[in-house]
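Troubleshooting entry. The earlier prediction with adenosine monophosphate gave an output that would not parse, so I re-checked the input for stray whitespace and re-submitted. Clean input:
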Amino acid sequence: MSEAAQPTLFERIIARQIPSTVVYEDNDYIAIQDIAPKAPVHLLVIPKRMTTRLDEIEDAAEMGRLWLTAVKVAQGRLQDYRLVVNIGRGGGQEVFHTHIHILGGWDGGSPVGFGG
Ligand code: AMP
């Protein structure tokens, strides 16, 4: 008998088993504030359908809807911003449930460059 997969951190957040600050939600996506912000505004856009990493998504419409949702959430809050996806441990991914980071709110100052 195979062991049931443990729900991911983000599945538990979606199920409201772990508290978070939800800034957007629809049937397919949720956006929350990152608990350890790396920018003045740091949000996470998370598809409710679980994949462990972005490159597991093969359907173009599903991929497009995820990015469109991230842009919609960002545009409602920020003039300029950065969208980031960490893919795999070597890419900096820590939570293995696909998500897009929205980073912004530097207020005229420049954000750090890549690797900075
Ligand atoms: P990544 O490194 O791309 O997997 O990003 C995971 C992000 O999840 C990090 O920026 C963490 O700060 C964030 N995070 C971890 N736990 C929580 C939590 N309970 N609520 C909100 N964000 C979290």
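This one parsed fine. The beta strands are 22-25, 29-33, 41-47, 81-84, 100-104.
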